[in-house]
C-alpha cells in the first residue's frame, strides 16, 4: 500500500502580479526540496498548448511527499506559514486565490480481499 501524497497547490495572482508571484514561490523550492519526506516540489507556470485549456490559476506547485505527515510538517514550517499569511491571507498580498489539493495513487478498495 502506498502512503505517498501528491499535492497540487494552485495560485491565482492578483492582476499584473503573475511574474512577481512566480519568483516569490520559486524562492520556496530549495528549502522544501531538502525537507524530510519531500520527493518532488516543482513550481510550474501555465503555458498555451493546443492540447490544453487555460484556467485562472496559472501557477502550480507539483508536489510528491512520502506520506501525509511529511506534507503536514511542510505546511507547519515558518517559511510556508509566512508566505500564506503575507501573500494569500493579507489584503496587500499578491495572491487573489489559492487551491491546495491532495491526491493518492491508490485505487478504491485497494486492499479489499478478493473472493472467488
Description of the molecule:
The chain is an alpha+beta fold and 116 residues long. It contains 4 helices and 4 strands; from the N terminus they run βααββααβ. A 4-stranded antiparallel beta sheet has the order 2-3-1-4. It has a single domain (5-52, 63-103), classed as Alpha-Beta Plaits (2-Layer Sandwich). 30% of the residues lie in helices and 28% in strands. The protein has helices spanning 18-26, 29-33, 68-76, 78-89, and strands spanning 5-13, 38-45, 59-65, 95-103.
Number of domains: 1
Could you give a short account of the major beta sheet?
A: 4 strands, antiparallel
Strand order of the largest sheet: 2-3-1-4
Low-confidence stretches: none
Number of helices: 4
What value does the Rg take, in angstroms? Answer: 16 Å
Q: What is the C-level CATH assignment?
A: Alpha Beta
Structural features:
alpha+beta, Alpha-Beta Plaits, four-stranded antiparallel sheet, 4 helices, 28% strand
Task: Set out the fold topology.
Blueprint: E1 5-13, H1 18-26, H2 29-33, E2 38-45, E3 59-65, H3 68-76, H4 78-89, E4 95-103
Antiparallel strand pairs: 1-3, 1-4, 2-3
Short account of what is shown:
The chain is built from four helices and four strands; from the N terminus they run E-H-H-E-E-H-H-E.
Amino acid at each position: 500500500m502506498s502512503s505517498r501524497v501528491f499535492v497540487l497547490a494552485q495560485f491565482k495572482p492578483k492582476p499584473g502580479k503573475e511574474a512577481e508571484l512566480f519568483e516569490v514561490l520559486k524562492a520556496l523550492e530549495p528549502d522544501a526540496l531538502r525537507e524530510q519526506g519531500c520527493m518532488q516540489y516543482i513550481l510550474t507556470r501555465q503555458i498555451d498548448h493546443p492540447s490544453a485549456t487555460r484556467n485562472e490559476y496559472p501557477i502550480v506547485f507539483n508536489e510528491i511527499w512520502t506520506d501525509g505527515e511529511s506534507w503536514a510538517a511542510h505546511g507547519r514550517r515558518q517559511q510556508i506559514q509566512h508566505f500564506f499569511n503575507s501573500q494569500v491571507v493579507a489584503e496587500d498580498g499578491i495572491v487573489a486565490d489559492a487551491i491546495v489539493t491532495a491526491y493518492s495513487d491508490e485505487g478504491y478498495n485497494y486492499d479489499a480481499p478478493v473472493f472467488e
